[in-house]
């Protein structure tokens, strides 16, 4: 069965510090992995995806994610957090044309 | 704004009533998905269309739920005889390609409250 786990309900980080939002997955076959961000009263916005190739994927707003096949992880990272990065982040895997989402991680960036 | 739009944004209804939601995808996108999201959870897949054909429905989608995409453009999701457990955010998303590598573009959602 396909599943995505985001072990942290909330991540707190100070502005300017690096941030990591964790994601692990379980899927049959090759994983197509995605990160989305959700701001209040707005739809989910695509950040980045891993399909194949380089394990470090760069996306929007300075975010990047590292795919680790042996650990079945796809952690989201940013070298220097901004207050405006505060939002709800979802990891997702696409398997057989359906997205399976994690439960989300609320990122709080404090000035 | 040429993104995915959903109407209405909010719907309050009494238990037992029928409700219908509309989704207008990005115009050149031939795949359209419906999801349900409850508080503290990620979106859960309900159903999806390739043009006007409904290709798959989740087991979450009971007989009270029906979705259509009659001309391969906008889609509607109808819930008959609503129950309090139907209260959730209903999200629509579209994607341009048919493969699993394509990202989806989401609408703002319709929040349903069943009283």
Could you characterize the architecture of this molecule?
The complex is a heterodimer of chains A (111) and B (115). Chain A has 111 residues and is mainly beta. Helices cover 0% and strands 55% of the residues of chain A. Chain A is built from no helices and twelve strands. In chain A, the strands form three sheets. In chain A, strands 2, 5, 6, 10, 11 and 12 form a six-stranded mixed beta sheet that branches. In chain A, strands 3-9-8-7 form a four-stranded antiparallel beta sheet, with no helix packed on it. In chain B, strands 2, 4, 5, 6, 9, 10 and 11 form a seven-stranded mixed beta sheet that branches. Chain B has a four-stranded antiparallel beta sheet with strand order 1-3-8-7, with no helix packed on it. The relative contact order of chain B is 0.33. Chain A binds chain B through residues 4, 32, 34, 36, 41-46, 49, 51, 90, 92, 94-104, and chain B through 3-4, 33, 35, 40-45, 48, 55-56, 91, 93, 98-101, 103-109.
List keywords for this structure.
heterodimer; A: 111 residues; mainly beta; 6-stranded mixed sheet; 4-stranded antiparallel sheet; 55% strand; B: 115 residues; 7-stranded mixed sheet
User: What value does the Rg of chain B take, in angstroms?
Assistant: 13 Å
> How many β-strand stretches of chain B?
11
Tally of contiguous helical segments of chain A: 0
The parts of chain B where pLDDT drops under 50 for at least 5 residues are none
What's the total helix number of chain B? 0
Compressed to H and E, one letter per element, the order of chain B equals: EEEEEEEEEEE
Name the shape of chain B in a single word: globular
Q: For the CA atoms, what is the radius of gyration of chain A?
A: 13 Å
DSSP E strands of chain A, number = 12
- Biggest pleated sheet of chain B: 7 strands, mixed
Rounded average pLDDT of chain A: 94
Share of residues in strands of chain B: over 45%
User: Using CB atoms under 8 Å apart, which protein chain pair has the greatest interface?
Assistant: A-B, 25 and 26 residues
Residue ranges of chain A: pLDDT <50 for 5 or more in a row?
Answer: none
Overall SS class of chain A:
mainly beta
Mean pLDDT of chain B: 93
